[in-house]
Amino acid sequence: MQRLTGIDVARGLAVLGMVTAHVGPDAPGRTTPADRVLELADGRSSALFVVLAGVSLALMSGGQVPVSGRDLRRARVRVSARAVVVLLVGLVLDSLDTPILVILPTYAVLFLAGCLVLRWSVRALVVAAAVLAVVGPLVRDAVTLGGGPQGPGMSLDLRDLLVGPHYPALVWFAYLLAGLALGRGDLASRAVQRRTALVGAVLAVVGYGGGWVARLAVGDAALASTQPHSSTTFEVAGNTGVALLVVAASLALAPRAPRLLAPIAAVGALAFTAYTTQILVVAAVGPEIVWEPLVTSWVVFVVATTLVCWGWRTWLGRGPLERVLHGVSTAVAERLVPREVEAREPG
């Protein structure tokens, strides 16, 4: 899989943003510029994380030219195996009962769903993302108001995963589709980066601005909200716009300042390990670090995460959980869809 430092930088920012959302200071009535920056992390970081999952899917399945045939089957097996590992780790982390809402189960479901659209054109991916961004929140709202499906085969946990209050897969699949469409472009191209930034700016204005206008017109209706994790059409559009801006900026800056951005890129390269570790630390320290966050503990989390990932990446390469992901997915793919061996001509 092609590795772009800019994507690692963006993913590192997403992880550090989620750390900030979990243990960062949370003062009511934020007014200072620093408070505004902290506020930006809530909701947007996890959306960026999922958009980048879509980019990763694209890179794993051929980049600009999607794979087909045997290579496509192999890519789907690898992605599915990774999704199972992520799901298992997510369920373990969720069982620790920390105050943190674990995104990994939804992330795994989105990965599995992404296997079905690896051959779609960019146009189809964009249209599907737009449709989901509009229709998904309406369906979710209808299911929530109606009490949800009660028939056999639809457990409460599955319902929460699909249309729940925080990471509803039905809506969040739009983020992954947007990332997959982005990953089909030439991400190293300055022109693509500029277009990505332009589209991101437009989506951010339409999303957050449109939500503001809608609230002026209809009041504080739930479907007009742009609050973090409201998963409305307006929030999805705005969050996608911010994600595209971050990705475009990261791709543009990474080649210009590789040493400066290396620590953040290392966090992105070890994202699975870094995300998992911070939840394990919260479970060990206690919930107070989330419910009563301090600037000191937040700084320690961010600095320690960055330095440990940077050191590990420099001296040991791939992270521990990343090694598991790579090893399991490669082994399963070799078992189920082995690489074709070129036959030698007799001689």
TrEMBL record:
The chain crosses the membrane at residues 46-63, 75-93, 99-118, 125-147, 167-185, 197-216, 236-254, 261-286, 298-316. The keyword Membrane applies. Residues 190-327 form the DUF418 domain. Keywords: Membrane, Transmembrane, Transmembrane helix. Residues 3-189 form the Heparan-alpha-glucosaminide N-acetyltransferase catalytic domain. It holds the Pfam family DUF418. This is Uncharacterized protein.
